[in-house]
Amino acid sequence: MTDAIDNRLIDIEIKLAHQEHLVESLNERIYEQQQQIDKLENLIAAMAERIRTRDAAQAPINERPPHY
Fold this sequence. Notes:
By secondary structure, the chain is mostly helical. Helices cover 82% and strands 0% of the residues.
């Protein structure tokens, strides 16, 4: 009877170790993805600002040329 219990405990410990490893791997991947998201958000914000400042410096599209 004790051998069966020992074997079950060993199986549970093995499964727990695998789950802990999996959780740690997933946490690392989530951290990496969040860093990528932050970089992309900063890049988009910089590009939007560049477009805003460029558009403000240009004449409106529907404005008549000065020779009319």
